[in-house]
Structure formats: structure tokens, C-alpha cells
Design a protein that fits this description.
Layout: H1 25-34, E1 43-51, H2 58-71, E2 98-99, E3 107-111, E4 115-124, E5 128-137, E6 142-150, H3 156-174, E7 181-187, H4 195-205, E8 209-215, E9 219-225, E10 233-235, E11 238-240, E12 242-248, E13 255-261
Antiparallel strand pairs: 1-6, 1-7, 2-3, 3-4, 4-5, 5-6, 7-13, 8-9, 9-12, 10-11, 12-13
Length: 268
């Protein structure tokens, strides 16, 4: 469920806009795009996921997890070498899903039968939540996922600052230029009484290539490609890089819009 549209004319819109010098043009673009189409109560989410450093054993996995938590400044230290034997906490009733004991409440390390998981979560006041997830698979490969979200709109400057910080850390740790999954979600503005008005407004504002459209009784989505966005998501022959979905709540009948680049990866 998706929509891509180009909205360079909104770069100077008043209100909830991108901080100057954020150096993340895709994020800035979506923030400008959301301003006239969403009402108050928006939420912004950024995500990055990729393969990460391999590990050899439990101790090596824990050490790598702690190094990553420090690199991305979520410093909740792990006790390297603490047992993750799945039978150690059999008294918990689930010997195949055993948390390591003695950890900070905002941190968890779990061993399943085929993987290790280390998760660090840190709240930045009441405005933003940041999470690092590090998963180790049975073959020694790993997956790193970084996620941050605003808890209220006033957390946007903190979120943008963290995105810059994490981008620099990804460059330093892995030598890569991060491609972020950016999503903004909020109530549809009163100036957009229905989804057709929204799509007509977007089409009139800027030309884009529509790739796909889906609609059911409660949701509408359209996928587009825009040359103004750097991120891309391969969808066969075409490459989408902006996704928008509008969903009507079956109880309140409120319409919620989600705008993302390159794709939506949260419930809409």
C-alpha cells in the first residue's frame, strides 16, 4: 500500500518542518510533504536494517552487542560471558526462550533454539524512543536493526539529531552510507475530506509515475517513483521510493495517513 509523490514546492511550508541542516533530504522531503495533508498528532519513525558483524560463540556475540550499543550511543552494558544456556532458566516455563538475568530493564538478551537476540531500548525524555536490535543466527551471521520514533511532535529535533549521529556511526563502523526507511503517520487533515481529494491534490502538485494501486473497503494505497528521493525499493521491473496509505478506522471513522520512503514497514 503505497504512494510516491514529489513535493518540492512545500519545502518552505510553515509549521512542522525539517530542521535546517539535517542533511537527510529524504527525511526533510517527507516532513515537508506531511505538513499540509496531516493534522496534529503526527509520529515520525526512522529505521535501518542490514547484515552486521559475524560472531563465533556466545561470548563473542555479547561482546559485539555491547560494542554496537556503545557505537550507537545506547550504552546499556551487557555482562559478557553470562550464561545463555536455554536450560538455565527452565523454571520460567519456557526453556527455549530464556532471558539472561541481571540486565537493565531497558535491555534484554534472549536465546532461542536457533538464534541470539540482544535488544537495547532507551527513552530520550518523553519525546523519543530509540532501539537497537542485534540478532545472531545459528550460522554465525547477524542482523542489525536501528529504530527511533517520536512519542510526540516535540521530539522531532531529537530524532533528526539522532539520525545524523547514527548515520555517522554506520559510516565509522561499517563504511557505508545508510539508506533510511522513514515513515510519518498521522490523522488526515480536515482540508483533505477524502482520499480522492488527497490523491488529486498530490497529482496536481507534482508529476510522478504511479506504479501500483490497491483499495479495499477501509484502505487505499498507491505506489510511485520520484526522482527527488534517493531511497529505492526494488519491486520487480520498477523501483518505488515513496509509499502512502490511507486507512479508515472502522470504529471512529477517522482517516489516518502514512507516508514513507522507500516503503511502509509499520501497521497503517
Amino acid at each position: 500500500m503505497a504512494v510516491t509523490f514529489v513535493f518540492s514546492l512545500l519545502a518552505n511550508s510553515q509549521g512542522w518542518t525539517a530542521a535546517q541542516g539535517s542533511k537527510h533530504p529524504d527525511t526533510d522531503y517527507l516532513l515537508s510533504l506531511s505538513q499540509p495533508v496531516m493534522a496534529a498528532g503526527k509520529q515520525v519513525i526512522i529505521k535501518y536494517t542490514s547484515a552486521s558483524k559475524p560472531y563465533t560463540d556466545e561470548t563473542d556475540f555479547l561482546r559485539a552487542a555491547e560494542e554496537l550499543s556503545r557505537a550507537f550511543q545506547l550504552p546499556v552494558p551487557l555482562t559478557v560471558g553470562e550464561s545463555m544456556d536455554p536450560n538455565r532458566n527452565a523454571s520460567l516455563g519456557n526453556p527455549k526462550h530464556s532471558p539472561v538475568q541481571g540486565l537493565n530493564p531497558h535491555q534484554a538478551v534472549v536465546q532461542n533454539t536457533d538464534l541470539y537476540t540482544a535488544k537495547f531500548t532507551q527513552a530520550h525524555s518523553d519525546n523519543m524512543m530509540a532501539t537497537l536490535l542485534f540478532v545472531g543466527f545459528a550460522d554465525g551471521s547477524t542482523l542489525l536493526s536501528l529504530n527511533a520514533e517520536t512519542l510526540q511532535e516535540s521530539g522531532l529535533p531529537q530524532l533528526q539529531a539522532l539520525q545524523l549521529q547514527w548515520t555517522a556511526a554506520l559510516q565509522a563502523e561499517f563504511g557505508i552510507q545508510a539508506q533510511w526507511n522513514v515513515m510519518i503517520q498521522g490523522p488526515l487533515a480536515a482540508s483533505m475530506p477524502d482520499t480522492q481529494s488527497l490523491l488529486a491534490y498530490l497529482s496536481a502538485t507534482t508529476p510522478v509515475d504511479e506504479l501500483a494501486r490497491y483499495q479495499d473497503s477501509g484502505s487505499l494505497s498507491v505506489s510511485y517513483h520520484s526522482s527527488l528521493l534517493a531511497s529505492e525499493w526494488n519491486t520487480g521491473k520498477e523501483k518505488m521510493n515513496l509509499q502512502v496509505a490511507v486507512h479508515r478506522d472502522s470504529l471512529t471513522h477517522e482517516q489516518r495517513i502514512t507516508i514513507a520512503t522507500p516503503a511502509i514497514s509499520i501497521p497503517y
